[in-house]
Specification:
Belongs to the metallo-beta-lactamase superfamily. Class-B beta-lactamase family. The chain has seven helices and 13 strands. By secondary structure, the protein is of the alpha/beta class. The N terminus is likely disordered.
Length: 244
């Protein structure tokens, strides 16, 4: 996981910047990908890792906003939500949760209170139910395709990896794949937090991702710099080295 000290490099070299990067607060930034899609990057202190930058996705169309993952705590989620509503003049209507860790869903209860529809894989919902966490309203087993203000959104569960429940989200018109923590950045030297990982399934799942979304032009990991399909291959190499 990249620490706060490395964030500036990630921010300015991680994705093509179509406009100036937006600082919302000391805890969260937006980095534009195109005219209606942003990377949201937030910071949280994780025990054993220090201050870590975590990635999420924001899509705004026709005054409506879709989020993929929340920041890792509620106060930062509120900062992001308030900026979207007040400065970008968009209503947050949809949240997709990548897996059950805090850096994906810590802000979900707040967003649900605001009337945001929440979506996750059924495995995520089951884990949350068993551990007393908030559950999404909408669930899917293998795949969920839906229309967001005229744009297609493809959510897939292709197998375990970083966690047993991790999903990926694909925007086919923009060829953007949000891999989340299933995918490691090129600067990653190891797999990071593997406490809840399915190391046996992980390489098989990455292989499925590669075959399912071969046209991806931008691949976004859960932490660190975005890139192309080379992130998938790098993640596979890290898994091979981990086994050794």
């Amino acid at each position: 996981m990249p620490t706060f000290a490395t964030f500036l490099l990630l921010l300015f070299f991680g994705l093509p910047a179509f406009t100036q990067n937006i600082k919302i607060s000391d805890h969260v930034f937006l980095s534009p990908i195109n005219e209606h899609t942003y990377l949201h990057v937030s910071f949280h202190e994780f025990e054993g890792f220090g201050k870590v930058a975590s990635n999420g996705l924001l899509v705004i169309k026709n005054g409506k906003a879709l989020l993929v993952d929340t920041p890792a705590d509620e106060p930062t989620t509120i900062e992001l939500y308030d900026y979207i509503t007040s400065e970008l003049n968009a209503q947050v209507t949809t949240l997709i949760i990548g897996h059950y860790h805090a850096d994906c869903m810590a802000g979900m209860p707040f967003l649900q209170e605001k009337g945001v529809e929440t979506i996750s894989g059924s495995k995520t919902s089951s884990i949350c139910k068993n551990t007393g966490k908030a559950q999404s309203q909408r669930k899917f087993k293998k795949a969920l395709n839906f229309d967001f203000e005229g744009s297609k959104v493809d959510c897939r569960y292709l197998g375990g990896g970083h966690t047993e429940d991790n999903i990926v989200v694909y925007l086919p018109e923009e060829k953007i794949l949000f891999g989340g923590c299933l995918v490691k950045s090129l600067s990653s030297k190891n797999l990071g937090n593997t406490e809840d990982a399915d190391l046996k399934a992980w390489p098989k799942t990455l292989n499925k991702v590669e075959k399912t979304f071969p046209m991806s032009k931008i691949v976004i990991p859960g932490h660190g710099r975005s890139g192309g399909m080379d992130l998938i291959l790098h993640s596979m190499d890290l898994l091979k080295n981990h086994k050794k």
